[in-house]
Amino acid sequence: MEFFIANTVSGLAYAMLLFLMAAGLSIIFGLMKIMNLAHGSFFILAGYVAYTFSRSGMNFWLSMVLAVIVISIFALIIEKLFISRVHGSETDQVLLTVGLVFVLGDLALWIWGGNFLSIPVPAIFDFSLDFAGMTFPAYRLFVIAMGILFAFVLWYFEAKTRVGMIVRAGVDDMEMVSALGFNVKIIFSGVFIFGAALAAFGGVLSGPILGMYPMMEWEILVNSMIVVIIGGLGSWKGAFIASMIVGFVDIFGRIYMPTFAMAFIFILMVAILMVKPTGLFGRVES
Amino acid sequence: MKKNKRLVLAIMFVVSMFLTACGSGGGQASGDGEGEPIKLGFTLALTGNFAFMGEGVKEGVELFFEENGNKIGDRPVELFFEDDAGDPQKALKNYQQLTLNQEVDFLGGGTIGSISYALTEAAEKDKRVPIINVVGSGNSLSWGEKSDYVWRIGFSSLNYAGTLGVDMAENIGKKAVVIASDYVAGHEQATDFSANFKEHGGEVLDILWAPSGTSDFSSYINQIKQHDADAVYMFIPGADGPRFVQQFKEFGLAENYALVDGGSVLNAPSTVEAVGDAVVDGYVLSHYHVGLENELNKKFVEDYTAKYDKVPDNYVINGYDTAKVMSESIQEAGSTEVGDIIDTLKAGLSFDSPRGPIELDPKTNHPIQNHYILKGVEKDGEIVFELVRTYEKVQMPAEDPGYEKAK
To answer: Which residues form the signal peptide (chain B) (predicted)?
Structure first.
């Protein structure tokens, strides 16, 4: 039983990391129809930037805030310079953003080198909790809390705020929203930056657990894609549920069927797509 | 449309800048001695994930020839370094280019296992040039896949894992859990460790296979906790290794289990920097230790630190000794003909290295050398590795001992 509980908590922590990776990607694609394959690069760059700040003596929280700001500004530049030119053409978006992944990856290799780097756990969470014979690092519990908090914030933003309403309307009928006097371009830039900021936030949060190293952006991208595909594009709800499923399948798969640990998740993905091609919470396009 | 074209041009410009910047430098002619220069070629991982290994080897080679006036005997030395980024295909291209275009007399390469196998196959087929395998640790390179043309200067999986198996059973604990990366080298290590550990009275309670690229080890850690073991043997190379070490500490395992590493992760300077005190009390085996007390090592560490402002690691010593073997064998053969060099190596070459005495064993094309058990300690706020035990003259058996495969 203890073993089961310990792994459930582990699974939950992993699921929340996956959620933070995937939520931004899902929102950007779902709302703007932009296939941003450089999403993983934003995620890992944020970790690197926060690492640099924390090495220069700043505490974890300040480094996190600054890294999120830096990546948001960076995303704004990328959006204005490149992404805005390829609106409407998914092939171009894929080619462009894959190119970005390579360039940003080499840039990171050049600046931060090829070694594994890790952000130190913030001092107030640098301890383990013992209960019922299990040990659990406090920082992971904090990550679980942040994941749930962010799911709540996203729900609130989408369902209860005026901006959320405009964004939802823009997805359904961009011309109409534009005709009503809203600046669609600004909305789109805003959503893109918000998605990148989410990735950056996740990147810094995962820094003390996953660390950063070259080519990790692909790992993040593949994980995010799986979550987004299972959950359905454009739905934070889908991303949240899918993260939980993938997290638990991964953790328990590794224990009970270790040789199939990797295949398991893909089998699950295929199964879900066979039953529901749009993903669990994906909307059917008219 | 015009705008787009300009953008494409701009991108192409940036990309071409990158390519030029990354392009490898040509030969570094050096020395002012008499006669035709001796050409030494190297294909190493100088960019990408394994760059820290290739860079170390390169630095070691350069340091050796700097100390020796860039000469072998009285002939100047010309060094060619090519980057293979840890890709066997690129390494083979470099091999062709170095042996056919540059016509090098001696080649060094094999930053990772798959490359050393690829180079061995090519060398055995072409018989063009002798090769020093700088890192690749696959056991069969000393047995079934052995080639007269390829000599190893690093270590073997069996030497590392086997010695640790013996040492763990005798000095650390009789009950162990093994966690290894789920690929060829991981299986080889787990097998070699388990067999030797059991032979000396140890008991392996469980073997966990973690796929390469595992980022979250919590489920494996929970499984380790299920066992009443004394120690955990890990072989998890690459970026996964430091992650595991960090999580091992984070989940409080460090308090109850001794951590023993067969993959040179714990004592890598980059790991210590990334995970800090998580390496304290961990054991690792190495064929080199920076604190070894001998004159050669003192000079080696001094010279290296003066030149690069850091302390040398296993890869630097491999590069340094690679250069030493090249220099010694060419001088002893009195020729740069491939046949003469091979004959010299086959007659047995031994020399003193900063890592201790080395004998290149012609039965296995593998160095007979000391292995050192190191332990992480915190000393005056700094984390260092201390020598706890030495295994002298560890050698490869001439034939595959045929251990039962670990599952």
So the answer is: 1-21
